[in-house]
Specification:
118 residues, mainly alpha, 4 helices
Length: 118
């Protein structure tokens, strides 16, 4: 039998659907962290779409494109003016996209967790 009236009353703090945690941070303090997660996810999707779009426009796979710009990158690195780029090229590891996404998301989530003391 279904009773008339709302299933959750405003004064019913014990109902499992309410989810009120008195120790939870105020909703306003979660806006920026949620925005950061949202921006990270959108940025990751946009980067993947851009890569796919470049592959379609050029007809080159990412590996083929890297080989095509190799001589130019070698020239730039030989000048010695970009040590961080040189390090990235030399130490480059290309993880699988899902592993890279998960690592990046963990990094994004670590900030709010540390800030909120969790």
């Amino acid at each position: 039998m279904i009773e008339d009236g709302p299933l959750i009353r405003p004064d019913d703090r014990t109902h499992p659907l309410v989810g009120v945690d008195p120790a939870a941070p105020p909703a306003a303090s979660t806006r920026a962290p949620l925005g950061a997660v949202h921006a990270y996810v959108l940025g990751s999707v946009a980067a993947q779409q851009a890569l796919r779009g470049a592959e379609q426009r050029t007809g080159l796979s990412e590996e083929e494109w890297q080989r095509s710009v190799g001589p130019y990158i070698s020239e730039v690195l030989a000048a010695g003016e970009h040590p961080m780029l040189a390090r990235r090229v030399v130490e480059a590891e290309e993880p699988e996209p899902d592993i890279e996404f998960t690592f990046g998301l963990d990094c994004v989530l670590d900030g709010p967790a540390a800030r909120l003391g969790r």
